[in-house]
Amino acid sequence: MEISEIVARLTNIVVTELDLNLKPEEVDPNASLFEGGLGFDSVVIVELIAIIEERFDFTFAKDELDMEMFASLQTLAAFLQQKISFSAGKVVQAQ
């Protein structure tokens, strides 16, 4: 799965499933998910994690829940691409 497709899926989740009142055009994939960016708080992050686990069909390991991974949707998408590729038995070269 391409990063752009993952970013699109994450944007859709943010717009349609999280109670943030954001429109797709307001979601910058490179903006911080936290203060100064999209404004997520810890409750929204927990909700996002649960939705990602359901939609992408995997579970985050406790050691994977690093706040740097949630720096932006782009950063999160890159992590998810690696996770999806690994679980599919593929090794993805770093981009």
List keywords for this structure.
Non-ribosomal Peptide Synthetase Peptidyl Carrier Protein, Chain A; 3 helices; globular; disordered C terminus
How many H/I helices? 3
The name of the CATH architecture is Orthogonal Bundle
Order of helices and strands: HHH
Name of the level-1 CATH class: Mainly Alpha
What does this structure look like?
- The chain has 95 residues and is mainly α.
- The chain has helices at 3-16, 42-56, 73-87.
Reconstruct the topology from this structure.
Blueprint: H1 3-16, H2 42-56, H3 73-87
How would you summarize what this structure contains?
It is built from three helices and no strands. The protein has 95 residues and is mostly helical.
